[in-house]
Amino acid sequence: MKILTAAEMREVDRLTIEAGIPGLILMENAGSRVVDFLLETFAPLHRERVVVVCGKGNNGGDGFVVARQLWTRKLCRKLTVFELFDPASLTGDAAINRKALDACGCPVQRGLPNEPNVATVVVDAILGTGLTGPARGEALSAIQIVNTQIPLARVVALDIPSGLPSEETTEVGEVVRADYTVTFTAAKRTQILPPTYGRAGQLTCVPIGTPPQFCETNPGFELNLTTPHDLRGLFKPRPNDSNKGLYGHVLVVGGSFGKSGAPAMTGLSSYRSGAGLVTVAIPESTLPMVAGYRPELMTEPTHDPEKLLKLLEKMTVLAVGPGLGTSPESVSLAKLLYEETAIPAVVDADALNAVAGSLRPTDKIRILTPHPGEMSRLTGKSTKEVQTDRLGTARKFSSDTGTVLVLKGDRTVIAFPDGETWINPTGSPSMATGGTGDILTGMIAGLVAQHAKGDWKRAVVAAVWLHGRCGQLGAKKWGEEAMLATDLLEFLPEAMNEVRPKL
Questions:
Q1: What is this structure's pTM?
Q2: Is the dihedral of CA 273, 431, 434, 392 positive or negative?
């Protein structure tokens, strides 16, 4: 799913209208999709008392369409429509739909009274994506009334919650407290990025007739929200004559005294993600612990770096860093493997710290998976600076270094050197526990190993989505406190089934 700025969305609408689809049709389609949403979400809708609050612009016009359809189709128990401005001040498609509301006999009240209201559903059509700065005047008053005087209602925002700017992810004023947002054609940045995405409630993006070449397949729009639909091509049924050699061989390099569990978890998650073979290279003293963790894991000692480089010639993907430690020998090994191996490498944990400050632009596939603290060391910025502009920081680092950057955290950012960027919507506070990063490293390595000669980029995106989805599913069983990192793998089959093509 594309994520657009307000300016990009206006351009998409302009191109659509120029192609022959009038704005009036787009507005009608938008209102129709919202009515469909209401019918599905609040079934049976004929029991509900619905209030529609309409502002002045096209967002208000969408609201007039919703009100007309609810009225003419007699879909709800009671319908009350409020408009915040003199209808004579309306122009364009919004004015046409306001007149249509009169023509069908639907009553409209001027102004939203500041008094208790027993409505059970509120449709917020006060302000749209063109807002800059805080809401003011009658629009602000209406937002405050919706938030305080209609306590029984579930609130559905049209396109964006009123008062929420479409681009600035710092809150600047009062915002409608939406339970749901139905947005049109593409997602908007503040609906997706922290800290404002929670304001949108449950987000649904609906098509309203825009030709795909103007938005969904437009190569000029590089920012995407990961959805299951985006990942289906990676999970087609395997051929009957499959063998382990078809699905890649992952080499995990890591481990140190007291940290043998990290590379073992990485190896196991690579296997669970579908890799054909996994070898874990660890210090000789920790070989028995890893070998005893799972019998499927093959092991190699790490004492001879040149032997590891030779071994990598037979491998598909390298995962380096989990539990590696910070000894001079470990730092030297991480740098050597990062610079010399030709195959794709997933770089995490202590390996990130080892290469921080010495990264040179590369044309090799290097997938770095820092949390904000590690990103701080990689960039020289403070953690606060990283978190303030996660998207910009990730994109610039990826472009400057030629690496794939997976900036972990709430709404993980996945940035590719060519500008393609994905925001991951899955995840849970239950994942704030040691080892979940090692599981992610293994999942990325395992999926890339299977698609190294194909769409390896989408494999990275899929691994991050699946990892977060496992956290969401696991939290339902374990709660937010009791889940362990390896518990994520229990839910990987269920998460994978959610993205498989439906037969």
A1: 0.95
A2: positive
